[in-house]
Specification:
It is built from six helices and twelve strands. The strands form three sheets. A six-stranded mixed sheet has the order 3-6-7-8-9-10. It starts with a helix and ends in a 14-residue tail after the last helix. It is an alpha+beta fold.
């Protein structure tokens, strides 16, 4: 079904790339054949080849993530962990934590918060790709991300149950805070991120968040000769 539908909707490679959100062709895997990929292929690609891919309409699409974006995502996780250590609201996942938003669609936000409301027994699911959604989804923009791709992801996140999304731009030092796919406010590094109704009480000054990208490692003092 996936293969036949993909063939009907995508006559050319250009059609396929547009359908996926105008992603660069080097991020679209041809093995397995587009339209036939499954969740098993997502897991096998990670385990055997070390490539983190999302599953979109039977197509494996490699995540766009560089060192700077990964570092910033890790720093946000650190800050959110500090907050959640005092406010027991849920758990966090990083850039290799997949979600089955619905059958045939696996997304992997760069940072995810999952509230305890989704985990009534208080346990982290054992399945590698659980039927969950991020209450907060964070996407840290890479140069290989496109606007159409992020727009598509936002619609999918909120359709699945997401209540808050942050789209972080490390180059512009800004964050777009979404409460719906088409409703956002733009924050600059002069402002602070808050968690809204999802993470009440959270306050992250963006200047301090982005400052981590510029910090130099402490240098050891050289002994005097």
């Amino acid at each position: 079904m996936l293969l036949s539908r993909t063939k009907q909707e995508c006559v050319t490679v250009a059609d396929l790339l547009k359908k996926l959100g105008n992603v660069p062709p080097e991020r679209v895997l041809l093995d397995p054949t587009p339209g036939t990929a499954t969740e098993k292929d997502v897991l096998d690609m990670e385990r055997r080849r070390g490539r983190t891919c999302e599953l979109v309409d039977g197509v494996l699409v490699e995540k766009a993530m560089g060192l700077e974006e990964s570092f910033l995502a890790g720093w946000l996780i650190h800050l959110l962990y500090q907050f959640l250590a005092k406010h027991k609201l849920g758990i966090l996942a990083g850039e290799q934590g997949p979600f089955r938003l619905w059958p045939g669609l696996v997304r992997i936000p760069d940072v995810s918060f999952i509230s305890w409301n989704q985990l009534p027994n208080g346990k982290i699911p054992k399945q590698p790709i659980p039927d969950l959604y991020p209450d907060l989804a964070v996407e840290v923009l890479s140069r290989k991300n496109t606007k159409a791709e992020i727009d598509r992801k936002l619609h999918e996140y909120f359709r699945s149950g997401t209540r808050l999304a942050w789209v972080v731009d490390p180059r512009k030092r800004s964050v777009r805070v979404y409460t719906a796919p088409d409703q956002f406010r733009l924050l600059t590094e002069e402002q602070s991120l808050d968690g809204g109704d999802v993470l009440p009480g959270l306050n992250l000054p963006l200047r301090e968040v982005f400052a981590q990208l510029e910090e130099e490692p402490a240098r050891k003092k050289q002994p005097k000769r």
